[in-house]
Amino acid sequence: MIFGRILPGAAVSIIVGNLFYSWQARRLMRREGRTDVCALPYGINTPSVFAFFLFIMLPVYMQTRDHVLAWKVGVLACFCSGVLEFCGAFVAEWIRKVTPRAALLSTLAGIAITFIAMDFALKIFERPLIAMLPLAVILVQYFARIRFPLGIPGGLLALLVGTALYWSVGAVQAALPDVVWAPALRPPHWAGGDLLSVLTGEYILTYLAIIVPMGLFNVVGSLQNIESAEAAGDSYPTMPSLAVNGVGSMVGALFGSPFPTTIYIGHPGWKGLGARAGYSVLNGCFITLICLSGTVAWISQVVPMEAGMAIVLWIGIIITAQAFQATPKEHAPAVAVGLFPSIAAWGRMIVSNTLTAAGSNLSKVGLSAFTGLVAIRGMIALEQGFIFTSMILAAISVFLIERKFLLAAGWSLAAAAGTLIGLIHAHRITESGEILPIFFAEAARAFWPMAVGYLLFAALFAACHLWSRHRQEWVEH
To answer: Where are the domains positioned within the chain?
Structure first.
């Protein structure tokens, strides 16, 4: 199922998107007469992988013990997410216009500094004998801008050095795959009939609460990455970029992939590494090759993760720095405010993983056990829908800095509405310790105090607007 249906389907979506974004970059290169244009990075949407697997495919399998049915429902969810992404492309430019750059980039910075940079920084210092020399290679080339002999890219050199250390030092028990790999073509198969067989209200309505938030998450995340690319000097049109993103997810689903694709984080980092338009084609072709030949597991055992962690760490650093460098200096506090939800999400993940390692979970321990130690309720609430919460809090901060109180009040009202419908903050904890989103009436009943808090935000900001206008009129009089 994995090597014969899912990965070949993912390969179709990846090659389609990468070819488009490479063509788009070359078009921009010709139009502006530049040679330093970097294509938008594109691939599988990692948050959707976990969400669709844990909250859609796994429950279907646990209820039916039918892995084929679980895969079909996952394919359906992927296709629906693609439709939502495609439709979102037609309103995304308006969202981009009304949202300050600091609000768009601070969300990416929060994800970059926590889930990307911090996570890999800890892993590097956990395996110093293998991972620290590749880190030094990356820092020398991309901070000190040293050119290595024969023009070898720093990223490639880091991979080679890390892999050599992995196999020679003996700090890790490295072993070749149990089964010697032999080339075997695994072409993609049409899955449209499988999708139609589960196209019923039963599955769509049951898992709409997962599909819709993840689809919106994908639209907004891709939009933020387009803004990040523009801040790095490469301006791409919003509508076609997001539309092809949605098409990629739909095409992948029609060929058996249950995982949506996305314009993902990292454009400034890839551009700093020297990537241009052609890297997107190379990336798409290579991923397609290993997916269709079934060599993914073999490669992951030959090339250690430690060899490439420094590259990802550097990308996280560059994205975080960009959020402060590409926004007006006075908006820096707003960028800092936008980091909090991502930090809360990362912190909650650490807490949950620690409890899991101890054979427990949040439900077994009880939230009251954290009283006086960690504000766990606030951490979980701030984590839910954190990509939206980060945008909202950063946007409010920007408009307060600019003394545009009515706009700050408007964003506060949007936050109150988002809380009541369950887009942000609202959640419930299952007996197994999982944190699931809740929507509409259930969200309103449980989290109305949070919505009232945002309404008080709006009332205060509106009062500040009236007071500042009255004071200005009094001074002029």
So the answer is: 328-464
